[in-house]
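Something for you to look into today, if you have time. Just paste the record in under my message, thanks.
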Amino acid sequence: MSDQASNSVAALTEMDWSRTDVGRPDGWPLPLRLAADIVLNTPLPSLVMWGRQQVMLFNQAYAAVAGLPGQPPGGKVPAMQPTAWSWNPAAVEQAWQGTALAFPCQTLQLWRPDGLSEQRFDLYYTPLRDAAGDVTGILCTLAPPSAAIAPAATGALRMLVVEDNLDAQYLVCEMLRAIGHEVDSVSDGEAALRKLEEATFDVLFSDVSLPGMSGVELARQAVGRWPALRVVFASGYSGSLTEQLEFPAEAIQKPYDIEQLQAILDRIAGQLAAR
């Protein structure tokens, strides 16, 4: 048995877990025991959120990253949420709903004894399920960033995002702001038309399927009233959608990543700059 595995077993069997919020390991449900084995056996900073009461378990690698030297991997309800959870509550909620998520090259702000530290990680969120398939916890792993940082957009655009899924709306808006664009958001076509009357936008970025007015009808009315407005659809049909339209539009196929979307927006920014 490796030293690391030996240390894992020792942590589970010898630590006084009764003084923590999770109790002794022999009373843990199987998903928690398996998650603890994973966390304590990996060299990567890892932590578990167990239950909606948000009991935390973490390994020494995470303790070192977070500036908690010598603190054992116990179960504690934190006074302040670890940044791995608090940086994106909508993403964590998606994990609670059963979606495994990966976020490459994210900057986390870590409070350490010597002050605030910013570090980049690839973040992985894995739902932990019980025998009935219900999500009872979330495993988070922090890995060294594997992807280059996305370059800043060549030109900042004023964008209106129309997305009725509020979690998806939050994520795409944060992503667009992170690459330098100015963003407003609404959840339906009628609200989008009102927003377009109130302010000037360069780009309408809309889901095709919306409650009430569709994204296509929204874009048709918007371009008819504001001909300079550029349209980008998030669609399951990609290019086949735009071929059927009587007005110019771009489409990006779901699921998409930041590089694909940024390439379209950079092209639009270049066209606007050349006018």
User: Anything to note?
Assistant: Confidence is low (pLDDT under 50) at residues 1-9. The radius of gyration is 23 Å. Strands lie at 46-50, 55-58, 101-112, 115-129, 135-143, 158-162, 182-186, 203-207, 230-235, 250-253. Residues 258-273 form the longest helix (16 residues).
